[in-house]
Amino acid sequence: MHQSTRTFLLFAFGLFLGQHTIFCQIHDAQTFRHYLSGTGKDHTVNWEFFCSDGRNSGKWSTIAVPSCWELQGYGHYNYGKDPFEERVNEYGLYKHSFEVPADWKNKVVEITFEGVMTDAEVRINGQLAGPIHQGAFYEFSYDISELLSYGAENVLEVKVNKASANESINHAERQADFWIFGGIYRPVYLEVLPKQHISRVAIDAQASGELNLDIFTTAKSARSVQLKLQDLHGNDHPYLSVDKTEQTPTKWTVSATATGIKTWDAENPNLYQLVISLHDKKGNTLHTTTERIGFRSVEVRDGDGIYVNGQAIQFKGVNRHSFYPSSGRTTSKALSIAHALMIKDMNMNAVRMSHYPPDVHFLDVCDSLGLFVIDEVCTWHSPHLDTEVGEKIVKETVVRDVNHPSILLWANGNETGWNTELDDDYAIWDIQQREVIHPWNIFGKMNTMHYPQYHVFAYDAYAKDKIYFPTEFLHGLYDGGHGAGLEDYWQQMWDLPNGAGGFLWDFADEAVVRTDQDGRLDTDGNHAADGIVGPYGEKEASYFTIKEVWSPIYIEDRYIREGFTGIFRVENRYHFTNLSECTMTSQWVKYPGIATDSESQVLVESRVKLPALEPLEKGTFEVDLSHNWQAADALHLTATDKHGMEIFTWTYPVQMPKELNTELISHEAKGKIKSKVKGGTILVLGDNFQYTFSHETGILLKVEKDGNEIPFNNGPIILEHTDQIESLEVNPTKDQVEIKVVYEMTDKSPNWASHKELSADIIRWTVYPDGLLDLHVEIKGKKIVEGFKGITFSYPESEVAGMKWLGDGPYRVWRNRMKGTRFQVWENNYNNTVTGESGFIYPEFKGYFSSLYWAQVKGNNDNGFTVYCHSPHTFLRMLTPQPPSKDNKDRTTVNFPEGDISFLKNIPPIGTKFQDPITMGPQGHSENYFGNDDDPIVIELTFEF
């Protein structure tokens, strides 16, 4: 019966004194809320507690409320997939004493529980407050006015059964694919109201300014109702008129019109507060309550799309659990704000409440920051909720959440758990008559398929007339999905005439702190390692891929080459915002060298004038070229939305690798150099170095510098290579030593005879007196390649301390997840993070990195080196990531070539929990096109030891 958005007059009525509270007098027309518990994970109150089984059981102690008792050291941990027969049905007993002022006797006092897992039996002073409540994720209340001792101490007792007596609830909530807990995990409070009061209000505030209200009341002497529309600062909006009122003994129905209002949407979350007062025949105020509302309209147009305020919406959404590692399902408003800000920062506009109604404060935050919401009741596959308990759960969900403008749709459960007998119950309680969907089903006007393969999504002929609206479409197990494949999927979804976007699975890894296992983070194997961010919000690479792919400012890929005009093609992918409302700055940047810790130098910064494009319009913008921009290393473009949040920063190299590295490398003939062949090896010696090469293969065997060995060796090995060596030459001169290896042609092209050397594989080392070591590799051309094209070396992982480099970063890439990086100088320390499973230190150190210009590999024993890459479009392979332990089908375990450090012209894609890369779109294919068979692939490097 309570509204999540009700505004209360919270004055300092009470002071906590131990377990008791002293109250001041309450004004007759006011609603007063007093918390018996804390308000969230960061603010709790200790109650007496007894746990029936498991850790710390069989004795009375105290526990923080709200909390999940497992995280407080009690009972057993359970993941939802646990078999029923193995689950211990723990129960917890809670006891809490509180005082009630004598002057409350003429009031109505209700006790509200925002969430209890799972069955709750509530007693006040030994008497049942009402029926046992069933269902873990739903708010419930009891009128306890007749049970209280006024002006005296009262005792609240709650028995909480972790499992429900209702088997359909157990199946829905406790065999689902998420962590399950026990306890009073959301706040508990008393609400004090006048005897004649407004019980609840349901509001329909349309974008037109039309207002319709159902005001449910106990006020039999009420004779009039007054509405006042205000901004959130309490300033009256003068243009509100009441058009019609109808009265019954328990409900007032009011129609009104507001003019000159600002509508609500995810880009413009304009909110108002509606003050509602009931008056008796003398004009005395019986009760006043305040609701926060937003004016917006929602339409689901059959065969077309989902419209908000008349605009078709492409939902860029994510599924989110209410969860925190150290507190389980007990969260806080601060956490809701942090999560919503990260979701918005990824340029998302929507969130699905998976798979249960969230904390009320999360919906408040979605209202105020601007996120479209699908609100969902908790079910899990078949069998579905039984009708009797399901009807109660639907009522509790809708009645609590009905007035949130962010909620556009209701979801009647998840993945075949739908009880269709409940579909029409939503309309009973929802004055807005929002549509009900069945996630993972073709139902009503929508096809909400889960994890469709790329080609199935495009050609699902059976449901071509339905709105395409996958409520889960890329699964983020470990490092797969989310960003990988998103660009392919999104372009297809964007272009579908009846597409409405979709939702990624899911926001954060559900890694819970195991207080029974020395505090380790547990994702229950591969069940809960699905997040875009880690358990504490650590940002994975996909976070930034999503941010770029879902940028509402869509800039076509651009390369700065000779003849660059400064013009970029752009599309406005907002729904309600003109592009000119955003800002953009350009920076022509010069990067620092390897040996300096100085910052990048901005040569010129300019404001970019964005065109006045309406949503979905295309146009161009121009970057200022009135200065010597060719002297820069890169161009940065940073876009900011009208609320001051960064949309994205795009970076574009200006110099090709060889041009930029020329400024950093000086081949001066300093010192003496000599070479000799000895025992099957080639020794090249300088004043302070000695390099050892194989006289049979030309492979670098050993590097010694200043008497120390640098363990970089065993290369270059040409990958996927079977040709035999035709010749090896050592050509010393006064200023350098050249070692050249030419391979035989075993796969000869038709014109091989006349272009033999051009077509053969070649390795050429050039050593200079100062110790610089050039490497030139030519790998014969082949148009279509599935394996690796490139070269590899060995360097023991145990010796690696970190890496500083110029290239795309700071995150690694896969072939189907190239977006989201920036081209600049980066520095990462070594880590052995297994994405979503262990470490949770991001960026991951090991993997593939794109657009390498130079890299400084830092050794643990002053035995690192620097490599300059002069060849464009070269990937650096840095070591081999440890594969996740529970990747049962190896879909998120990617192939790596032999060796430890490689320089590659192609890299593999990554899959998801449910799909191999090839089914995720064009970028997920393993074949690579390299053009003319006669043109070799060239890799040019310089090593500095």
Averaged pLDDT: 93
Text of the CATH class of the largest domain: Mainly Beta
For the record, the count of structural domains works out to 5
Structural class, by secondary structure, is: mainly beta
The CATH topology of the largest domain is given as: Beta-galactosidase, Chain A, domain 5
How much of the residues is beta strand, in percent?
35-45%
* Architecture (CATH level 2) name of the largest domain: Distorted Sandwich
Shape: elongated
Helix content: under 10%
Q: How many H/I helical runs?
A: 10
Across the major sheet, the strand order is 52-53-54-55-66-62-61-58-59
> Uncertain segments of ≥5 residues (pLDDT<50)?
1-26, 752-757
Query: Major β-sheet, in short?
Result: 9 strands, antiparallel
Cα separation of the termini:
73 Å
Integer-rounded radius of gyration: 33 Å
